[in-house]
Amino acid sequence: MKKLFTSALLALVLSINVYAQERTYFDENWEKTTQDKMEYYRETTAKGKLTLIKDFYKNGTLQMEGLASDTTPSSEVFDGKVTWYTPEGKVMSTVTYSKGTQVGPSQTYDATGRLIEDLVYKGDGTFSGKSYGYKDPDSEYYYNSITTYENSIPSHTIIYDEDIKGIRTETIMGKDSSYENKYYGEKGKYIGSAKSESGENTQVDYYYNPMRVSKIEKYKSDGSIKEGVVYSKTGKILQEQKRNKKDGYKTTYDESGKKIAHLVYQYDKENDVYTPMDGEDHQFSYDNSYTSSIDVYQNGSVILNKEFDENGKLLKETKLKDGTTQEIKYYAPEGTLKSTLTYKDDMPYNGTSHEGLDENQYKDGVLINRKTYSEEKKLKSEKKLNSKQNTYEATVYDNKGAILYTFTQPIQGDDFDYTFTAQIVQYVKGKPTYKASVKNNTLQSGKIKLRTYNGVKELENNGKWILLKVYNTEGKIVQDSKFLINTGDDFFSGENETLISEDLLYNDFE
């Protein structure tokens, strides 16, 4: 009889527990849904005055568990330790709560299970502890790091390679916003430091992956450079400079250690400045992998400037006299001369320039032809001076080579008049479709459509009004309004969306 009673009691307890456990289904936005549409589901079980919440991924893997006094999705009032898990079942984070407020230890882990945050929160929301970053060649982090926080403010950061006591930098923040950067080289040898307070400082730059010193510069208390060394990724000296009370120098070497350039400085004691006098000043790319430019000095003035591409090929050579440009030569990647542009009174005079994606041809100081190319070297626009030399005739193409616009533009009499005046013809599928007259950036007559990042703007002149329609990228109209025609005086304020500039014609986002 006693055994029968015990079995009955056990069955009753089990039935109560099953009845007390509830299951709710949610979609990807944690909105309640049906079982066949769910991405998550939740099981809740009463635990005294609290409720144990267990959330699961669709496949049954635990997603979160913790106690709460309010189980409303996205508005839970947790109490105690709450743990979240990845779809693979690894711990993603643990957070401690007290009546819904985050108080106590909190840890966060990355996808591989490494600790990235180890913090302790106070009731006022501030925290103390450490965060961790890990070296990863596939991301922007090519180094390891540890940051210590006090009252939610970083107080100490270390960036290091493999050994935290080896090559590294340390940043120490003071409570008064002061700081000190400490620099260490191979095997943790101390190099120097830079402080927020005035005084002599040392600045060190590094290569990463692996971490190596790339540049050391020492500065005087007035901020001027005292000496410096640039290293290659293999540790070879590429450049060194020193400045003393009488003069200074900068010497450049190749990877083999051979001296390839030497620049002499002259010290002006009265003004406390160093002036480059004679020799070559080599400037390196951001990673010191190649010489990006060379300035040649003679008697204190630059007489020649050379610019190079990432393969070390000469791109551009500028001759100067008394600080003014005399001539620029442009070179093709294979080394052949592409064009020459002469200057007069420090302004382009005769020849062709190649700057970025623009090609400009000048004759007797007048721009007679301008071509603009895409990154794929396709012609995007061309503007030619007519035979009477009073009007530019321009054609704008899309990225497939079809004509978008043609326009004629009178030469502005004032070099500082940047407003746009033109007669425009717009093409659709290779055929002229709309005509428009623009004066001082304002539509005087006709109709025009302009592409924008958000879709298309259509403007039409209607007497005293400009009719404006704006379409989104799907072609749906999102604005239909009108504006009184203005003089275009507020062009530079950017407040009037009906104003038309030449640049708008070049937009092609397809």
Structure overview:
The relative contact order is 0.03. Among the domains are: 19-125; 386-510, no CATH class. The strands form 2 sheets. It has a 24-stranded antiparallel β-sheet, with no helix packed on it. It has a 15-stranded antiparallel β-sheet that branches. It is built from 1 helix and 39 strands. It has one helix at 2-20, and strands at residues 22-26, 40-47, 50-57, 62-70, 77-78, 80-85, 91-98, 101-109, 115-121, 127-133, 144-150, 153-160, 168-173, 179-184, 190-195, 201-207, 212-219, 225-231, 237-243, 247-253, 259-268, 273-284, 291-298, 301-308, 314-321, 324-331, 337-344, 347-355, 358-363, 366-373, 379-385, 391-397, 403-410, 422-428, 431-439, 442-452, 455-462, 465-471, 477-484. The protein is mainly beta and 510 residues long.
